[in-house]
Specification:
This protein has about 950 residues and is α/β, with parallel strands linked by helices. About 40% of the residues lie in helices and about 10% in strands. It has 36 helices and 25 strands. The strands form five sheets. The protein has an eight-stranded mixed beta sheet. A hairpin with an 8-residue loop joins strand 3 and strand 4. The radius of gyration is 34 Å and the shape is globular. About 0% of the residues have low confidence. The chain binds thiamine diphosphate.
Length: about 950
């Protein structure tokens, strides 16, 4: 073959070699040098025509180099990573013949062609290639060709080929591994025997998971990490709880006994508990200086991923100084253990991986482990994913992957050590695909051979990893033959002793939520002296020298300067109230984290928490730069995610509950995408796991003719989940109410933490009716019910009390009918949950002659607050007067699609509020009925 006949990659390689030869002929081997001596490389215009002489050895050289490259890229396809011995798919490019060479050719070529650490110790290319095969096609498959950053890819390559991360093989280390996997196996066997048929989701078949975690956690602790946060599903969780989190055997065994202990029934605290394989834990004592936490986990697979990331982010972020928050990935370590069916199947995995390199969400690198038992309940890999491996998704995120045979402890520990070092070096994610099997069915009561008869026959006679490792060590003479049994017996005795002395009712310790300070919400004072507010407002508006604001923003900034000038003028709009609330919270020393899609500017261009210099694009964050602040403020535009984005903030919040965490939806309905997080974590986390979240959700809501989605934040969903005082749901109508609400939430973070859902305005953001006076910020407080100030003085004359919540109130008071309807009072229920029945009762008592009480809402009858509020109102009024519903009729969709139709319905709604008798005169969706 002539030199100029090489094509594609090969041609590139020849030219690269030639370039090396040109610069330093000594840098390449003599045979190649000889070939180049008589060769002229093609120039662009002559490449196809110039006759070039060559040497056929070049083909062999290139063939050897390509073979080495293919082994590095595709060797994992031939790796023996399945403990059950399935044949790897392999790849033709892994054979010399595919590159036009033979073993004999390789033996005649220098090892330097293969490059890397293996070349240094090899006599020729054949030896070096054989060593590469042992590395890349053994019980580990290094899968990193997709890592497009050369430095990262080269690091993994060198780490793999140098064997630098192989575990020590001295007698003490190898025996320690045997001891650990014996402990893991004995635990499962003991539970199997003692509680036959009880679900435990045994780890067996993936026992090496525990030593892998040991290795990673110890590595992190040695390098100064302070917190490791783990997230995992059911598989092997009890084993991890017992051996990685050090959860006492007594407690786990007590949970298996499931005692009806009085202390576990604490409905007064809103406590319901959860199944034992969902419980979280935290190590009681640190390992080194590091605590290990396992996040509690719902049944929804992979949902915990963003929660763990948020926890890790919070644990690594320091916020005690004003200005920006500072994240240090070196002190925190998230570890996520995934299922092989769940990892590719659940969208939240991709959403979470997408957070990993974003400044506001970086956690310094996550170590992922796929606990790959090659089954998902009854589904096989062919049923479960379209990628080649369960880990395929990680490739797109440039995450190095190591597939490893779970029956080879040495390979497993090498993978763990490599993962940890990579993370420490680059602060990036790493994935271990731990390939094993599942010894029993999906759970221990499930019969796996109904669907996998052949595999389960093989598993029945397959030795455990403990047995395999024990044999290896005995055969090598590293340990005495009687040691494996002795270790087994010792660990069994520990469990038997714990079981024999078990007092289930005492040993069972539910993680009850703390009792809230009674009435705390009503007691906090949230007003701020006007002088202080003015001072802070001026400081927030200070222009750094040389900063040019966008021309269109200048007017708003000018207006802001005088917003607090007149104490009784309604000059404080929504955005001003928000910024002043946040600023005063920071001045009180409470750090704030705020995220959401486009949250920095605000969807409706009202917030401008981050200014961009009109000339340079440089950023200015006023809340990080005012002198009164005593804590950090961070704000980040989130990626276009709701599920992972909310999960992340939930995790951040529960990890560091003394920080105010706010998530804003672009439109309230987008929170639908985070329904799993709401149901599984936010609203039930207290009842299931004793968590006390206090995350704030800002959800634009209100019927303005923008169609079914952008009208409703679906308040009914929060009300459906509301029980045992597990959340606050507010639909407030003035800037001052919002100011006090945010300040109240910050003040309650420790005393009475609850998630806060705020239905926020859209068109009303700049509406004068929503504006408040500076005096209201100074003197007021949050009111859960606002009476009708105009009607109060003539309480006896009021015939109808209309109760409503949120934006529709502004429509009502803006109606022409309002001025001529002195017999109607319009009162606002600003807090829907906890339901303010005392405040409402007081309001209703002011109107003794009322003939009907109306609940008016914009939403259809099957949505909004009606279903929740109806029984509450019925109880409040008893038989004093009838209760009436005015609102849209039941509907499958939240609102009309047409703006004109919306207006018609909205008008009818308002008309009916003021009309004591009549019904809709035009065809509309609106319903007015006595109930
Ligand atoms: C979101 C979600 N969908 C379905 C299930 C029901 N489910 C529980 S475990 C399981 C199989 C999971 O397989 P895999 O991820 O491989 O984990 P393994 O149980 O094999 O460890 C299924 C379908 C669930 N818990 N969560």
């Amino acid at each position: 073959m002539r030199l100029d006949e090489f094509q594609g990659v090969n041609a590139g390689y020849v030219l690269e070699l030639y370039e090396r030869y040109r610069q330093n002929p000594e840098s390449i081997d003599p045979e190649t040098r000889q070939a180049f001596e008589s060769w002229t490389p093609p120039s662009h215009d002559t490449a196809s025509t110039q006759p070039i002489s060559g040497n056929t050895n070049i083909q062999k050289i290139v063939g050897a180099a390509n073979l080495a490259e293919c082994i590095r890229r595709y060797g994992h396809l031939a790796a023996r990573i399945d403990p059950l011995g399935s044949e790897p798919i392999g790849d033709p490019s892994l054979h010399p013949g595919a590159h036009g060479i033979t073993d004999a050719d390789l033996k005649a070529l220098p090892a330097s062609l293969v490059d890397g650490p293996v070349a240094e110790s090899s006599a020729n290319a054949f030896e070096a290639i054989e060593k590469l095969r042992r590395i890349y096609c053994s019980t580990i498959g290094f899968d990193y060709a997709h890592v497009f950053v050369p430095e990262e890819r080269e690091w993994v390559r060198h780490a793999a080929e140098s064997g630098r991360f192989l575990p020590p093989m001295d007698a003490t280390s190898t025996e320690a591994v045997l001891d650990r996997i014996t402990q893991v196996e004995v635990f499962e066997r003991f539970l199997h025997r003692t509680f036959p048929g009880k679900t435990r989701f045994s780890v067996e078949g993936l026992d090496m998971l525990v030593p892998i975690l040991d290795e990673i956690i110890c590595g992190a602790a040695d390098h100064g990490a302070r917190n490791a946060v783990l997230g995992m599903a059911h598989r092997g969780r009890l084993n991890v709880l017992a051996h990685v989190l050090d959860k006492p055997y007594a407690q786990i065994l007590a949970e298996f006994k499931d005692p009806v202990a009085a202390k576990s029934f604490r409905i007064d605290l809103g406590w319901m508990g959860d199944v034992k394989y969902h419980a979280g834990a935290r190590t009681a004592a640190p390992r080194g200086q590091m605590y290990v936490t396992l996040a509690p986990n719902p049944s929804h697979l992979e949902a915990v991923n963003p929660v763990v990331e948020g926890m890790a982010r919070a644990a690594g972020t320091s916020v005690d100084r004003p200005g920006a928050a500072h994240f240090n990935g070196g002190i925190t370590l998230p570890i996520l253990i995934h299922g092989d069916a769940a990892f590719p199947g659940q969208g939240v995995v991709a959403e979470t991986l997408n957070l990993s390199r974003l400044a506001g969400y970086d956690t310094g690198g996550t170590i992922h482990i796929i606990a790959n038992n090659q089954l998902g309940f009854t589904a096989t890999p062919a049923d479960s994913y379209s990628t080649s491996y369960a880990s395929g998704l990680a490739r797109g995120f440039k995450i190095p992957i190591v597939h490893v045979n779970a029956d080879d402890p040495v390979a497993c520990l090498e993978a763990a050590r490599l993962a940890w070092e990579y993370r420490a070096r680059f602060g990036l994610d790493f994935l271990i695909d731990l390939v094993g099997y599942r010894r029993y069915g999906h759970n221990e009561g499930d019969e796996p051979s109904f669907t996998q008869p052949v595999v389960y026959k093989a598993i029945a006679s397959h030795p455990t990893v403990r047995e395999i490792w024990a044999h290896t060590l005995v055969d090598k003479g590293t340990i005495r033959p009687e040691l494996p049994d002795a270790l087994f017996k010792r660990h069994l005795e520990v469990l038997e002793t714990a079981y024999a002395s078990l007092k289930p009712e005492q040993d069972y310790v539910p993680p009850l939520p703390p009792r809230a300070v009674a009435g705390a919400a009503g007691l906090v004072s949230t007003g701020v002296p006007l002088d202080r507010l003015r001072e802070i407002n001026d400081a927030l508006l200070t222009r750094p020298h040389g900063f040019t604001f966008h021309r269109k923003l200048e007017r708003g900034l000018e207006k802001r300067k005088t917003a607090l000038a007149n104490p009784v003028e309604r000059s404080v709009d929504w955005a001003t109230a928000e910024e002043l609330a946040l600023a005063t919270i920071l001045a009180d020393g409470i750090p704030i984290r705020m995220t959401g899609e486009d949250v920095e500017r605000g969807t409706f261009s009202h917030r401008h928490a981050v200014f961009h210099d009109a000339d340079t694009g440089k950023q200015l964050i006023a809340l990080q730069a005012f002198p009164h602040s005593r804590a950090a403020f961070e704000i980040h535009n989130s990626p276009l995610s709701e599920n992972a984005a909310v999960g992340f903030e939930f995790g951040y919040n529960v990890q560091e509950p003394r920080r105010l965490v706010i998530w804003e939806a672009q439109y309230g309905d987008f929170i639908n995408g985070a329904q799993v997080m709401l149901d599984q974590f936010v609203t039930s986390g207290r009842a299931k796991w004793g968590l006390t979240p206090s995350l704030v959700f800002l959800l634009p809501h209100g019927y303005e003719g923008q169609g079914p989605e952008h009208s409703s934040a679906r308040p009914e969903r929060f009300l459906e989940a509301a029980a045992d005082i597990n959340l606050r749901l507010v639909n407030c109508t003035t800037a001052a109410q919002y100011f006090h609400l945010l300040r109240r939430q910050a003040a309650l973070l420790e005393r009475d933490p609850l998630p806060l859902f705020v239905l926020t305005p859209k068109s009303l953001l700049r509406h004068p009716a929503v504006g408040s006076t500076p005096q209201e910020l100074e003197q007021g407080r949050f009111l859960s019910v606002i009476d009708d100030d105009d009607a109060r003085g003539r309480g006896g004359a009021i015939k109808r009390v209309v109760l409503c919540s949120g934006k529709v109130y502004v429509d009502l008071i803006g109606s022409e009918r309002r001025a001529v309807s002195s017999h109607i009072a319009i009162c606002r229920v600003e807090q829907l949950y906890p339901f303010p029945n005392i405040a409402l009762k007081e309001v209703l008592e002011r109107y003794p002659s009322v003939r009907d009480l109306v609940w008016l809402q914009e939403e259809p009858e099957n949505m909004g607050a009606w279903a929740f509020i109806r029984p509450q109102l019925e109880e409040l009024i008893g038989d004093r007067c009838p209760l009436r519903y005015i609102g849209r009729a039941r509907s499958a969709s939240p609102s009309e699609g047409s703006a004109a139709w919306h207006q018609l319905n909205q008008k009818t709604l308002i008309e009916q509020a003021f009309d004591l008798d009549s019904h809709a005169s035009v065809p509309s969706l609106v319903l007015s009925k006595q109930v």
